[in-house]
Specification:
Blueprint (H helix, E strand, L loop, with lengths): L7 H10 L5 E6 L6 E8 L4 E7 L4 H16 L17 E3 L2 E7 L4 E2 L4 H15 L12 H17 L4 H16 L6 E4 L8 E4 L2 E5 L6 E4 L1 H11 L1 E2 L2 E2 L1 H12 L6 H29 L9 H5 L9
Antiparallel strand pairs: 1-2, 2-3, 3-5, 4-5, 6-8, 7-10, 8-9, 11-12
């Protein structure tokens, strides 16, 4: 989805700032529900990704760049933005952050056992990265976003059955999610359109927009929410592949295993809430207005853990 239209002249401006030239083609890329992504084809045959951050301020993007570069320095496969001529990794244009990223010649990670085993390994590697300065300890897609939604519903008189359900679930989850679970850096949104891979291997984890310090087991169940379901049902073999890959690097604690069902409920509702906020409250009247219902329909399904 492209929220910002980018012309060849716009792309050439960013390429010039990076000391590159020879743009021969530009086309929108799939994926990205909060930013705009375009594939740039250059005269020398190379390709780059141009990203415009539509829902993050330049200051927030600057922090995000620091965090993703830190993760990359510690061996996690992701994309570092290219440096421009002044050493910066982004350009502010029309109040938005624009950047160039390496192009990874791969599709979205599949849900076969080898791919999900690799995803589990990469998650465990991420969770071993030391916490860096400036990371929030609040997961925005969770209670922070929900409170913002409740405030907006109050202000606009726009309470709905889903928002009332979310309000009730919030009370329960705050009581039931245990304190003291192992914490670390989490991605927070490990869905297929945020992971590139091929031949059963993760090549790059993208879009660390929800990065924070939190219960690291949340990433495991969020990955299962994203990759582990088919036709509205959980697939046990997919969970086993994710967990096996993860535990080949780091074993879960007993407390984490016990917490998996409630963390999965939290993750499922976090995705439902984000979709409701984005496609009902923020950008209404699109074909995605009912996407949150895919998540709410899962809440009472039996889980493989």
């Amino acid at each position: 989805m492209a929220y910002t239209q980018v012309s060849a002249e716009d792309a050439a401006e960013l390429l010039d700032a990076a000391g590159m030239a020879g743009l021969v083609g530009i086309s929108p890329l799939e994926g990205g529900w909060a930013n705009s992504n375009f594939l740039l084809q250059l005269a020398d045959g190379s390709r780059l990704v141009l990203k415009v951050w539509n829902e993050r301020t330049p200051e927030q993007v600057e922090e995000l760049i620091e965090h993703t570069c830190w993760i990359s320095e510690h061996g996690v496969a992701t994309q570092d933005p290219l440096q421009l001529g002044d050493g910066a990794r982004m350009l502010v244009k029309d109040g938005l952050a624009w950047m160039l990223l390496p192009y990874v010649d791969a599709g979205w990670l599949a849900s076969d056992s080898d791919s999900l085993y690799s995803l589990g390994e990469v998650m465990a590697q991420l969770h071993a990265v030391p916490v860096c300065d400036g990371l929030s300890s609040s997961y925005y897609m969770g209670f922070r976003l929900w409170e913002d939604m409740f405030e907006q519903a109050d202000a606009e008189g726009a309470w709905s059955p889903f928002l009332r359900q979310l309000e009730q679930e919030s009370v329960r989850l705050k009581e039931d999610i245990p304190d003291g679970l192992p914490n670390g850096i989490i991605h927070g949104d490990l869905f297929p359109d945020n992971v590139l891979g091929t031949s059963g291997k993760v090549l790059a984890v993208l879009d660390f927009e929800e990065i924070c310090v939190g219960a690291i087991a949340l990433d495991l169940v969020m990955a299962f929410v994203g990759f582990g379901w088919q036709n509205g049902e959980p697939v046990t073999e997919r969970w086993q592949a994710i967990l096996s890959g993860y535990e080949s690097v780091r074993k879960l604690t007993g407390a984490e295993r016990t917490a998996l069902p409630i963390l999965h409920r939290f993750a499922t509702l976090a995705v439902a809430a984000w979709r409701y906020w984005q496609f009902v409250m923020n950008i209404p009247d699109t074909e995605h207005a009912d996407r949150y219902l895919e998540m709410t329909a899962r809440l009472d399904k039996p889980l493989p853990f």
